[in-house]
Design a protein that fits this description.
Elements lengths: L2 H14 L35 H9 L13 H9 L6 E6 L2 E6 L2 E5 L6 E2 L6 E2 L16 E3 L10 H6 L6 E5 L4 H4 L6 E4 L4 E4 L2 E6 L19 E6 L2 E5 L8 H9 L2 E7 L4 E2 L3 E3 L6 H10 L2 E7 L13 H8 L1 H4 L6 E2 L6 E3 H4 L2
Parallel strand pairs: 3-6, 6-7, 7-8, 12-13, 13-16, 16-17
Antiparallel strand pairs: 1-2, 1-18, 2-3, 4-5, 9-10, 10-11, 11-12, 14-15
Helix pairs in contact: 7-8
Length: 349
């Protein structure tokens, strides 16, 4: 591994482990400067024994082939992208990385273009490439980052990103990597903070998750989801999240939602433990959609990395199958191929 990347990770840790902001009147702020989920959120069983070696060995047992139609060739993606003109659209680059064009704004979410999601050579490796190379990403006006995990906040991508004048929004204490890589226009948000970006109104909302980048910084940075309001439409881009009643409250305050993006993968950790309380199953994702009164639900956070022990292509099957039980039609549970571009109006039909 290059000396540069090692130094970048070291500097990033120092920047991300600075003094925390404590607010005594906010439940999710703790006196030691760390953060926690909203009151009543599910918590991981303290008796669970995580084992890296068990996880590694179980992961080796997963045998699969990537379906031929899972990824659209990059030359076709770039051709389609150049033909979109003034249309509003959504494109899946992979995992939780989407490119969205809303009016004059081009938004990039949780950008990761690296081969692995982890420090140095560690972490899960991609089994499919990003839809397009980082150098081919069009000029962006806004980056949204949901939390400080390697598969959502990627140091190599941030270092190599061409458009350093892009506006960046992050939760509290997640901006260090951008500051250390010459980004100047960065805003950190607490839950329920709102930022007006030209025609877009963007609000950071709670998610049921956590943060950690090293053995020493657990929950020292905040996590969250983004509500994007645009021309009377509400787009909810969820952080990795577990299932909880907070979504009933958010649905009452901010619903109905036109389009929800939510994780449907990385939930099964048997034989160590049954499931993650911090990642929804496909069924739970649609239940959250119901809580938010979401008209359409996009399943993300699958089909790119092996981060858990379910079959990598189980989530989309369960996602579609669960529509009948949750009151959705199959067409309302939306899946993308990597590289697929859909017009926003077509998605919302």
């Amino acid at each position: 591994m290059s000396t540069y990347r090692f130094l970048l990770i070291l500097v990033s840790f120092l920047l991300l482990s600075g003094t925390m902001t404590f607010s005594a009147d906010k439940y999710h702020h703790l006196p030691d400067g760390t953060f926690r989920n909203v009151e009543g959120s599910p918590e991981r069983d303290p008796n669970i024994k995580w084992s890296y070696w068990t996880f590694y060995n179980e992961k080796q047992k997963i045998k699969f082939e990537v379906p031929k139609d899972h990824v659209i060739p990059e030359n076709e993606v770039l051709k389609k992208l150049s033909s979109m003109g003034d249309e509003d659209y959504v494109m899946w680059i992979g995992h939780a990385t989407f490119l969205m064009k809303l009016g004059k704004e081009i938004i990039l979410t949780d950008p990761i273009f690296s081969k692995n999601a982890g420090p140095l050579f560690l972490g899960s490796y991609r089994y499919v490439d990003p839809a397009i190379q980082l150098k081919n990403v069009p000029k962006t006006s806004l980056i949204l980052v949901t939390h400080n995990h390697y598969d959502h906040l990627d140091s190599e991508t941030i270092f190599n990103f061409s458009y350093k004048d892009t506006k960046v929004l992050t939760p509290l204490k997640v901006s260090g990597l951008f500051k250390s890589n010459s980004f100047k226009n960065i805003s950190e948000l607490d839950w329920y903070d709102t930022y007006q970006h030209n025609d877009l109104k963007i609000t950071l909302l709670p998610a049921i998750h956590w943060s950690k980048r090293t053995p020493f910084d657990t929950n020292e940075s905040l996590w969250g989801s983004y509500l994007i309001e645009y021309k009377g439409k509400k787009i909810f881009f969820a952080c990795d999240t577990g299932f909880g009643n907070v979504y009933k409250d958010l649905g009452k305050k901010f619903g109905p939602i036109d389009l929800l993006f939510i994780n449907i993968g990385a939930y099964d950790f048997r034989p160590m433990f049954n499931k993650s309380v911090y990642h929804t199953t496909p069924e739970e994702a649609l239940e959250i959609g119901r809580m938010l009164n979401a008209k359409k639900v996009v399943g993300m956070h699958w089909g790119t990395f092996i981060l858990s022990l379910e079959h990598p292509f189980e989530p989309p099957v369960r996602f579609k199958k669960a529509t009948a039980k949750t009151g959705y039609q199959e067409k309302d549970a939306i899946l993308f191929k990597i590289g697929e571009i859909k017009k926003l109006d077509d998605i919302l039909k």
